[in-house]
Amino acid sequence: MAETPRLKPEQAEQAQQPGGLSIAVTATGGIRVVTVTGEIDHHTGDHLRQALDVTDTKLPRIVIDLRQVTFLDSSGINILITAHQHVTAAGGWLRLAGPTPSVLRVLQLVGVDQFIDCRDTLRHALAP
Q1: Rounded to an integer, what distance in angstroms lies between the CA atom of residue 35 and that of residue 104?
Q2: One-character DSSP codes across 24-86
Q3: Angle made by CA atoms 47, 122, 106, in degrees to the nearest 5
Q4: Interatomic CA distance for residues 126 and 128, integer angstroms
Q5: Nearest of 106, 75, 52 to residue 118 by alpha carbon
Q6: Is 64 helix (H, G, I), strand (E, B) or coil?
Q7: Are 57 and 90 in contact (CB under 8 A)?
Q8: Rounded Cα–Cα distance for residues 10 and 30 (Å)
Q9: How far apart are CA 104 and CA 107, in angstroms?
Q10: Contact assessment for residue 73 and residue 107, using Cβ atoms and an 8 Å cutoff
Q11: Sorting pLDDT into bands at 50, 70 and 90, what band is 19?
């Protein structure tokens, strides 16, 4: 009889509480609002990358709502930087809205907040 594999405690916790990412894309006044919930990391980043694609978009304006993001790693930072470069090259702009304290800390540590406009609230990010 085969023995059922047992999970180590740290694996069990991850299995019970998997890090996930949810993305909702809406538009307000011609601005694409990408609302992100969960963790942005190597495993979930492709979903965000797809939501930020501006291929064939003239003068894209994008706000990424980070109020519900609980984790951001270097993969997520790279996605934000690449999106900013593509949006800027297309003549548009990219703003970050309402990052949680832990996410804001990461943005500040690597200096992303110095070249990507980071606003305290979604309302401020949507303002002209």
Answers
A1: 16
A2: EEEEETTEEEEEEEEEESTTTHHHHHHHT--TT-SS-EEEEEEEEEEEE-HHHHHHHHHHHHH
A3: 60
A4: 7
A5: 106
A6: strand
A7: yes
A8: 45
A9: 5
A10: no
A11: low
pLDDT, averaged across the chain: 87
Cα angle vertex 110, ends 26, 118, to 5°?
A: 35
Question: What does the pLDDT look like over 70-110, one tens digit per residue?
Answer: 999 999 999 999 999 999 999 999 999 999 999 999 999 99
Residue 16: both structure tokens together? 């019970």
Residue 20 confidence class, pLDDT cut points 50, 70, 90: confident
Structure tokens at 42: 């190597």
CB 90 within 8 A of CB 52: no
